[in-house]
Write a structure and sequence with these properties.
The protein is 52% helix and 3% strand. With 304 residues, the protein is mostly helical. Strands 1-2-3 form a 3-stranded antiparallel sheet. A hairpin with a 2-residue loop joins β2 and β3. α3 crosses α5 and α10 packs across α13 (244-259).
Length: 304
């Protein structure tokens, strides 16, 4: 309902105060959606476990605990005291998830990412070895060497890029090799998540009359997967290249451990930083950039 995300994003330019207010409303709405809107804890717990949702445990919180979580997730002014006051019994892993969600929502990362268009402002670059999102100069025109410095935005943009563009056939080979490193039971559990989502998506499309035909032909178990069978890999790639569970597993287990790295310190400087010392001495072969130099720099005229 309403105008949706695209309805208020342009107002960020013309009316920052109104946009900030509407952004806060969006964060709160997303936080409430994550926490669910159930009438009692028993119903919430049943719903959370029935769908086997990755964030289903968030929906068991009710009353004051739920209100405190909504504030922590959506309000940039919330503090650690707000979380402690709610007296939530959280594991270290659950606390880490809440902090990530807080950064995405209250920190404005999602809003920043969604204000950009995939394959216009960012996307993949087949020329690079890393399979991470990179800046674009124009539609389908990635920059030569530029990378995103903000790691949180980079991870979010990489997810969006893969959801939009899908996996390459080589990516499917890599993810199947990674899958075969697991124990048989764990391997089949992961594969059933991929297969289940694929079958559910097809059933939903048939119900909405957006597609017709037989359901996807996928091996019934991970035991029948053969990483040496190129024909089978090609068939799996056709069925699972846009599968969210498969993409998430590939990013989590293959791409991010291989392609992400961050130095403990970053050196950044502009001419204004370099000129902020008592004495400066430099050389430039032209005078056409004199007007853009820091005020403390005085050009020496020719012949002086």
């Amino acid at each position: 309902g309403g105008t949706g995300l695209g309805g208020f994003l342009p107002r960020l330019v013309v009316d920052r105060e109104a946009a900030s207010s509407r952004a806060s409303m969006l964060y709160t709405a997303v936080a409430r959606a994550l926490l669910g809107n159930h009438g009692d804890a028993a119903t919430a717990a049943s719903s959370a476990t029935a769908g086997n949702e990755e964030l289903g445990w968030l929906k068991v919180f009710q009353g004051d605990q739920r209100s405190a979580l909504v504030r922590v997730l959506s309000d940039p002014a919330a503090t650690q005291a707000d979380l402690e006051t709610a007296q939530l019994e959280l594991t270290p892993e659950q606390l880490a998830v809440i902090m990530v969600l807080r950064g995405l929502l209250a920190g404005g990362i999602l809003l920043h990412v969604f204000s950009k268009r995939v394959r216009v402002a960012f996307g993949s670059d087949a020329r690079r070895q890393k399979r991470l999102a990179v800046p674009y100069r124009a539609t389908d025109t990635p920059t030569e060497r530029s990378e995103f410095a903000d790691v949180d935005a980079l991870l979010a943009m990489t997810h969006i890029t893969l959801y939009a563009e899908g996996l390459l056939e080589k990516d499917m080979t890599d993810v199947l090799h990674k899958l075969h490193e697991l124990e048989p039971e764990q391997r089949d559990a992961v594969y059933q998540q991929w297969r289940g989502l694929c079958l559910r998506s097809h059933a939903e499309q048939v119900a909405s009359q957006t597609t017709s035909g037989d359901p996807p032909r996928l091996p019934p178990s991970a035991g029948e997967l053969d990483v040496r069978d190129h024909a089978q890999i090609h068939q799996l790639w056709q069925q699972l290249r846009f599968n969210r569970e498969t993409i998430n597993y590939w990013l989590r287990e293959v791409t991010f451990p291989r392609d992400t790295c961050e130095y403990p310190h970053r050196l950044q400087a502009t001419p204004f930083h370099l000129a902020d010392v008592p004495r400066q001495l430099g050389f430039s072969g032209t005078n056409d950039t004199n007007l853009t130099m820091p005020l403390s720099i005085e050009p020496v005229l020719d012949g002086a």
